């Protein structure tokens, strides 16, 4: 079982940058993926980016491409989401998750990001 803890959220102004971190514990399998999602009030959870744990191959969703970047530090077992040029519409709870055995089966508790205009 992989446990995940996000950090780095907060209140920022439009145009600011923020880096979220996700610390993982437990065994991460070589075929696993790490990903970032968010959920705004009244909206469905939205995928933002994902990355293969071993190869570091990443995919960033079109909605945030060019502003958000995913990275990881395998030695620290941490995953990051660098968010630039933040907008009020980016306000949401941000989650990291671990994909293995065909499903996103481990989730963090989430970290709130609020972007003021």
Order of helices and strands: EEEEEEEEEEE
Q: Which percent range describes the beta-strand content?
A: over 45%
Mean pLDDT: 96
Unreliable sequence segments: none
Shape label: globular
Distance between the termini: 40 Å
Count up the helices.
0
Decide which structural class fits the backbone.
mainly beta
Major sheet: 7 strands, mixed
Rg over CA atoms:
13 Å
- The percent of residues in helical segments reads under 10%
Number of strands: 11
List key phrases describing it.
7-stranded mixed beta sheet; globular; 56% strand; 4-stranded antiparallel beta sheet; mainly beta
Question: How would the blueprint of this fold be written?
Answer:
Elements: E1 3-7, E2 10-13, E3 18-25, E4 33-39, E5 46-52, E6 58-60, E7 68-73, E8 78-83, E9 92-100, E10 103-107, E11 111-116
Parallel strand pairs: 2-11
Antiparallel strand pairs: 1-3, 3-8, 4-5, 4-9, 5-6, 7-8, 9-10, 9-11
């Amino acid at each position: 079982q992989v446990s995940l803890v996000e950090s780095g959220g907060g209140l920022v102004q439009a145009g600011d940058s923020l880096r979220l971190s996700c610390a993982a514990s437990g065994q991460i399998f070589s075929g696993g993926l790490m990903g970032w999602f968010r959920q705004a009030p009244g909206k469905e959870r939205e995928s933002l980016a994902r990355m293969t744990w071993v190869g570091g191959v990443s995919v960033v969703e079109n909605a945030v491409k060019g502003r958000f970047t995913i990275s990881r530090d395998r030695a620290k077992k941490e995953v990051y989401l660098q968010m630039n040029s933040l907008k009020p519409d980016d306000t949401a709870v941000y989650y990291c998750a671990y994909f293995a055995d065909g499903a996103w089966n481990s989730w963090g508790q989430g970290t709130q990001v609020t972007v003021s205009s």
